[in-house]
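Task: complex structure prediction.
Instruction: return structure tokens for all chains below.
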Amino acid sequence: MNINLKVWRQKSGENKGLLKTYRLENIDPNISFLEMLDILNIKLVKEKNDPVAFDHDCREGICGSCGFMINGRPHGPQKATTVCQLHMRAFNNEDDIILEPFRAKSFPVIKDLSVNRKAFDKIISSGGYVSTNTGEAPEANSTIIEKENADEAFLSSACIGCGACVAACKNSSAMLFTSAKVSHLSLLPQGKEEGKDRVTKMVATMDSEGFGACTNTGACSAECPKEIGQINIARLNQEYILSSLFSFLKSRK
Amino acid sequence: MQNLITILTSSVGRKILMAITGLSLALFMAFHLFGNLFLFVGEAAFNSYVEKLHKLGFLIRIAEFFLVLFVMSHAYSGILLWIKNRKAKKVISSYSKGNTSGAAKYAAFTGSVVFIFLATHWSTFWYKFNFDLQGMSYYYVVTESSVGFGSPIVSIFYIVAIALLGYHLKHGIASAGQTLGVVGTKYESIYNNISAIFWFWIPLGFISIPIWFGFIVRVI
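Output:
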């Protein structure tokens, strides 16, 4: 198949960017999207041009490194699929494909399609951890967890922190990401220890990193490659109300 | 105390404030509509209902104070969040299609129209009822006077504004359920069923008044 790529080229955060057109011919429809970009880059390097920078690591859809906008949608047209798991057969012959980086003030462009997602790390480090000892896996039944909670926590923990939710949101809100982390930990007994102020700390970091507020439009869940649901945001809000009440009552004493 | 201020001024805190004030105002609408429907019962019934409210005196003033306070804090938080959200989205020639529902996308716009409507509502109906009756009955002010549905322009503006208010509430009430954490609990379906009363049936009740008194009564 032949495709016409329009790729966002930007030397660095300080430089202005623009869309450049590249044509690729005789692409096997069964290669992955990133392999197609590899072919483009090999071609660019052979022509002594600058290759397109894009993030990727595992290429198995579980690390959260890859991600950019394909035709205005984070991770492209396929539901519940990261860019690395997307294949060229999802497109048609002679398609125009527009590639842009994730757009958000909190995700400054490093180069081309690669953005700095350090803000997510800061949210995690402000509260997304447990203080219980890790080490060897404990005896399976030593801590009893209800099946419903275990399932829900598992669904929330599926978040790979790729940033698609921020890119999909009209407000560049990080609520889906933050709420997935909060839910995942607050549903499990190991997360209870820091549970009282985890959510307030993480929300404070989310705000100070310049992410917008959630206006409950649901765009994030619709585009999430791991199908993290809106229920996580509701759960974050519940936690937030409880933790606010708790800290208010504590300060009254 | 410092803690509480930090919490209430965070993005989630502001949204909780918006949810609580918004839902309170929606509940007030139900009460307001109850009074308005006396217009259909008849002139005497409506006038005596308004008289009864007036006799409550300072209780009404306290309620009015809270209503204005709620409207203002709802609008204030909304505007601050809107500015924050604007700043967070760096739009540089983005090709994003967006998959946001209209009610959610235009909530700030519909809210602004509703605010303008409220300002005119207070400066006409509320002001007349309280300070400037000029011997007219309450019923007459609403159904016949130039600030009421005697004027087709007022009627049309009223219908449009209330329809937009319903649209605003369609997103607003669902959003409040999410913000207050009702979603995902066993109360979710009850909440969603009740919400249709507030975003559809109550606004429809309000709209029926200008349609009846402003247009239908005049034609038949």
